[in-house]
Amino acid sequence: MRRLLHLVVVLAFAGAGCLCSGLPLEHDLRPVAVSSTPDAGRTVDAGSPSDAGVDAGARDAGFVPRPCIAGTFTAFPAEPVVMLLLDRSSSMGVAFSATQTRWEAVLGSLAVALPGHDATMQIGGVAFPNLAENAPACTVLLPMEPARGNARRFISSVANRQPEGETPTTAALLVATEVLRRRRASNVARAMLLATDGEPTCTPNPVTDLVRYLEQSAAAGIPTWVVGLTGDPALEASLNAMARAGSRPLRGGRAFYAAQSAAELEAAFAAIRDQVRACSFLTESVPDRDGGISVSFGGVEVPSDDGGVSGWRWTDRENGEFALFGASCTQAIANPSNAVVTVNCGR
Question: pTM of the full predicted structure?
Answer without folding.
Answer: 0.83
